[in-house]
Write a structure and sequence with these properties.
Layout lengths: L24 E4 L10 E4 L5 H11 L9 E5 L9 E4 L2 E8 L7 E6 L3 E7 L6 H12 L7 H9 L5 H6 L4
Parallel strand pairs: 2-7, 3-5
Antiparallel strand pairs: 1-2, 3-6, 4-5, 6-7
């Protein structure tokens, strides 16, 4: 998938009491990634139990069922140990690793794995769009913490990105 999933409107059933999460704001590298990231995800809130099922549902089913995700405790301090997704349970592993501070690792058993930049939900749309694009670039040499640090410093990151090997 190499497109930002556009937000979908919530829907209600005939009784008016159900809600479907909007499609995730996600961009993945086309084909194979050659960098530290395979794309980026911009959740709408910091409730992993609400956001994760939509993210998992948008991934290509050909790569298998998502069995586990690894997230940083700094970004997801209240993350549950398990999240229900349609038809299965996803194990949530919390880590204090600096490389996972602004990332999520999505494991599909032995079939596939994605390392995604997690853009903070309150990030301005313009900055988030640039981060989605940069993280999904197959030639991106920057890690999730480095990309976010460039965005937070107020730089657009283009000069630094190019000086560190970006196209």
């Amino acid at each position: 998938m190499n497109a930002i999933a556009q937000p979908a409107e919530g829907t209600t059933s005939g009784d008016g009491h159900s809600y479907r999460m909007p499609l995730p704001r996600l961009r993945l590298t086309p084909d194979v990634s050659h960098g530290p990231l395979d794309g980026a995800w911009w959740p709408r809130c910091d409730a992993l139990e609400l956001e994760l099922p939509a993210l998992v549902g948008s991934l290509d089913p050909g790569v298998g069922t998502v069995t586990r995700v690894t997230v940083g405790t700094a970004a997801w301090p209240d993350a549950p140990q398990e999240v229900m997704a349609p038809g299965h349970v996803i194990e949530v592993v919390l880590t204090d690793s600096a490389t996972e501070a602004h990332a999520i690792t999505v494991d599909c058993g032995t079939v596939g794995r994605w390392e995604l930049l997690v853009i903070p939900p309150d990030e301005p749309a313009g900055v988030a769009t640039r981060l989605l694009t940069a993280a999904a670039d197959p030639g991106n040499p920057l890690s999730a913490p480095r990309l976010l640090a460039l965005a937070e410093s107020g730089l657009d990151g283009q000069d630094a990105w190019e000086s560190e090997g970006g196209a």
